[in-house]
Amino acid sequence: MRKLERPDPEPECLADMRAGQSWGDLPSACKGTVREALEVMHSDLGPPLCSYCEWEILTQEKGHIEHLYPRSIYPDETFSWGNLYLSCNHPDHCGQFKDRSGRPRYRPEDLIRPDNDDPAAFLRCSSSGEIRPREGLSPTDRQRAMTTIDVLGLNAPALQGKRRAVVKRASDLLLPELDFLASLEPDEREDLLAGEIAAFRAGGNPSAALHFIVDMM
């Protein structure tokens, strides 16, 4: 997960929806407007990325408008702009996984919200691609981190493999340059590594590379 900035104001058409209406009542034009705003929110230097796993959403069919508070349980949150995110469609993690029939119940307020919270303050990607709670968290924050990892399936094998590949690319790029990096002044080293971070932000799973590179600063 990475920090997101939610566009403000919300799409005007959302305010026209009334209590008691369902998501299916949302006009297709409004749904398209909402989707476009969310794609802006979830894009950086490349295609939109899933708000949870940072998987690239290259086509409309590969992602959906996600309700953090499930609309089946929290109907009053159905048209709440702050409850809408963009999620990939993978069945083994993220939005479809967390609300799948038979999954354990959870409290949405315990999940890390990438537009309200800074996920990097809670979560860390290891060189193996595993997402772990950061060291030094309070018991409450550690529980939020663990709940987020478990509910969203952030350590699904496919995700760990993708992150591991990103870390390897970052490692192959930077480890041969360790002596050169060590010879630089701290501000020069930070500037150079900031450029490398920007390059990884254009692809999927940028946080995996970010955590690896930040450790080298």
Order of helices and strands: HHEEHEEHHHHH
Uncertain ranges: none
Radius of gyration: 19 Å
Describe the largest sheet: 2 strands, antiparallel
Distance separating the two termini: 21 Å
Question: Helix count, per DSSP?
Answer: 8
Overall pLDDT: 89
What structural class should be given to the helix and strand makeup?
mainly alpha
Please give the order of strands in the largest beta sheet.
1-2
The fraction of residues in strands falls at 5-15%
- Note the overall shape: globular
Q: Estimate percent helicity.
A: 25-40%
Strands, total number:
4
Q: Would you give an account of this structure?
A:
It is a single chain. The mean pLDDT is 89. The radius of gyration is 19 Å and the shape is globular. It has eight helices and four strands. It is 39% helix and 7% strand. The chain starts with 11 loop residues before the first helix and ends with a helix. The strands form two sheets. The chain has a two-stranded antiparallel ribbon with strand order 1-2. A hairpin with a 5-residue loop joins strand 3 (123-125) and strand 4 (131-133). The longest helix is centred in the C-terminal third of the chain and has 18 residues, at 157-174. It is mainly alpha-helical and 217 residues long. Helix 5 crosses helix 8 (206-214) and helix 7 runs antiparallel to helix 8. It comes from Corynebacterium kalidii. InterPro entries: HNH78-like.
